Amino acid sequence: MIDGFSDQETLTITQYAHVASFNNQGFVEAALKNALTGLDPNTFIGCVYGSGVEGNPVFIQMIQEKMPVFGNSSATVEKVKNPRVFFSTLASLAIPYPSFSNDFPKNFTGKMLVKSAFGAGGHHIRFAASNATLAAHEYLQEYVEGESVSILFLAEKNPSAKAHVIGFNLQWTSPTDTQ
Questions:
Q1: Residue 17: which residues within 8 A CB-CB, separation 6 or more?
Q2: How much is the pLDDT for 139?
Q3: pTM of this prediction?
């Protein structure tokens, strides 16, 4: 296991634990590379990645080069993390979504959120100031009142694209002035 903490509970259930440093964007790339170098791929049947990797297709590709990945490939994550591809896919499936833009829409009177295309878990989301400068990987999305809910599902890899719902998540948030 490659982990940012390797707390006592983690250490009791794993034969191998490597602590890799991380920051607000996930694992530090050099630390993840170092941890992967120390792994013998013959001792693993594959990798289930999570926090610290899930929003970064480059990191997933690094893992894929070492062992099979159980979950979305780096190519899939790259498509999902591209706002134009993601939202056009939603539109083609008639799935409603709040409007998004790379610039503030003219005459917009509502609230906008700034989101990172490679963000995961929501910590990257903040309210946009009207004079906000966006980084290359950021975009704006219309803010909609309501509860923040996500769904965990398994999708089949065939053209019929069946999804099997595992569960729903309701975020427990502590809003701040900026998030």
A1: 1, 3, 6, 10, 11
A2: 92
A3: 0.74
